[in-house]
């Protein structure tokens, strides 16, 4: 029996090794395909130098990193756009929108939520959506204490916006012209399902924080391990962030953003996200222009979560983007930029004509990013053409060397 058990153990180990090898081969192939699409990356890359950087002191004394971009000919009547990023990201995730908004004439304020990006790491007990709401108020008070504002939040940043509206209803009433909720939810139930059902969600909610807390002391050793398994890591990030072809450069940028977040911070925020419930708060925004955007293939906050927001806001607009995942602002940047700019235009028209948003009908639309599909085909054809030429040149060089040696 011992021999049989040993044989079974060896067989299981061999099967696991074979499975890991197959996964590695698949990941390598996927990485090669993504490298074919590096032409999709923005010409200016993913780095950005802000016009102004400052530290804002939160209510508990924590330093929050804030960046501001201001157009040369600023129209003071236009709202300042305040942008809040999502869980395990940073203000860098808005790089493509901030450039476009400034070019369109808007002043933009971005901030790293506590324990993310370049903001200070807080006590884990303060890693709550409630505290993030107070942080957002501090950022607004420090950077745009007067004048109209528009709030744009992605994922956890949208949750922050909702909690902020509950804590600062008078500011919302008097100064907020428009709100955009990107890939977010008003309730935390089901947000850790990862598209695999509530059983997985409950397991992640119960085990995830404990596991991350145990791994936290060893996070500094992660960098060399990441290098060895880079293609597998990229495939995982791609799977849960995007739902259309993207470049290897974008996936690496995304992975670096996510894994810059400390494990203990991830562990602390997971219960806060799961306990999030701001459905009733949405009534505070009933007279504001509200845009709700989701990717149809978003595994973290699928469109059903957005629909619950839209149901509470009669005059809101719900846009679902085909072939889009959770990080839709990086996957389909022109669509998100265009939708937010349209939102601001509607808000400006409402203010000029005294139209009541609550009297307007809800609008629900599904959008396909045709332009990106064309760019993907062009990039693939361009890369295949280069690879074909290189292959032919290589064969010709080999024949020339053979003739010369003979």
UniProtKB/TrEMBL annotation:
Write out the biased-composition intervals (Basic and acidic residues): 379-399
Name the UniProt key words of this record, in alphabetical order: Signal
In the record, which residues are listed under signal peptide?
A: 1-22
Keyword Signal on this protein? Answer: yes
Task: State the source organism's domain of life.
Answer: Bacteria
Residue ranges, annotated region (Disordered): 375-406
Extract one GO molecular function annotation from the record.
catalytic activity
Q: Record keywords: Signal included?
A: yes
Query: Which segments constitute the AB hydrolase-1 domain?
Result: 79-333
- Please name one Pfam family that this protein belongs to: Abhydrolase_1
What the entry lists under PANTHER family is as follows: ALPHA_BETA-HYDROLASES SUPERFAMILY PROTEIN (PTHR43689:SF8), HYDROLASE (PTHR43689)
Q: Please give the name of this protein.
A: AB hydrolase-1 domain-containing protein
The organism of origin for this protein: Knoellia flava
């Amino acid at each position: 029996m011992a021999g049989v058990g040993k044989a079974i153990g060896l067989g299981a180990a061999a099967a696991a090794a074979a499975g890991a090898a197959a996964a590695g081969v698949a990941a390598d192939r996927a990485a090669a395909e993504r490298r074919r699409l590096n032409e999709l990356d923005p010409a200016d890359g993913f780095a950005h130098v802000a016009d102004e950087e400052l530290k804002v002191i939160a209510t508990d004394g924590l330093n929050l990193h804030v960046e501001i971009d201001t157009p040369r000919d600023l129209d003071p009547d236009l709202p300042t756009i305040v942008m809040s990023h999502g869980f395990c990201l940073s203000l860098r995730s808005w790089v493509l929108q901030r450039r476009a908004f400034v070019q369109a004439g808007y002043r933009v304020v971005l901030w790293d939520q506590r324990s993310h990006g370049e903001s200070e790491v807080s006590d884990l007990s303060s890693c709550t959506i409630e505290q993030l709401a107070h942080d957002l108020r501090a950022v607004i008070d420090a950077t745009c204490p007067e004048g109209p504002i528009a709030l744009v939040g992605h994922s956890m940043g949208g949750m922050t916006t909702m909690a902020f509206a509950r804590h600062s209803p008078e500011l919302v009433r008097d100064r907020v012209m428009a709100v955009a909720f990107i890939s977010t939810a008003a309730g935390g139930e089901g947000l850790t399902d990862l598209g695999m059902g509530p059983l997985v969600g409950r397991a992640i909610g119960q085990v995830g924080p404990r596991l991350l807390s145990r791994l936290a002391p060893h996070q500094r050793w992660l960098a060399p391990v990441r290098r060895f398994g880079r293609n597998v890591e990229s495939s995982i990030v791609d799977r849960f962030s995007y739902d259309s072809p993207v470049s290897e450069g974008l996936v690496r940028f995304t992975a670096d953003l996510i894994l810059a977040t400390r494990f203990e911070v991830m562990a602390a925020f997971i219960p806060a996200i799961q306990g999030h419930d701001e459905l009733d708060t949405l009534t505070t925004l009933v007279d504001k222009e509200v845009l709700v955007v989701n990717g149809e293939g978003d595994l973290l906050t699928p469109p059903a979560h957005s629909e619950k927001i839209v149901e509470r806001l009669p005059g809101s607009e719900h846009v679902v983007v085909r072939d889009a995942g959770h990080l839709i602002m990086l996957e389909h940047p022109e669509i998100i930029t265009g939708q937010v700019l349209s939102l601001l235009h509607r808000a400006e028209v409402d203010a000029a004509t005294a139209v009541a948003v609550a009297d307007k009908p809800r609008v629900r639309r599904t959008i396909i990013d045709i332009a990106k599909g064309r760019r993907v085909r062009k990039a693939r054809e361009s890369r295949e053409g280069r690879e074909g030429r290189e292959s032919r040149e290589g064969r010709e060089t080999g024949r020339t060397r053979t003739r010369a040696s003979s």
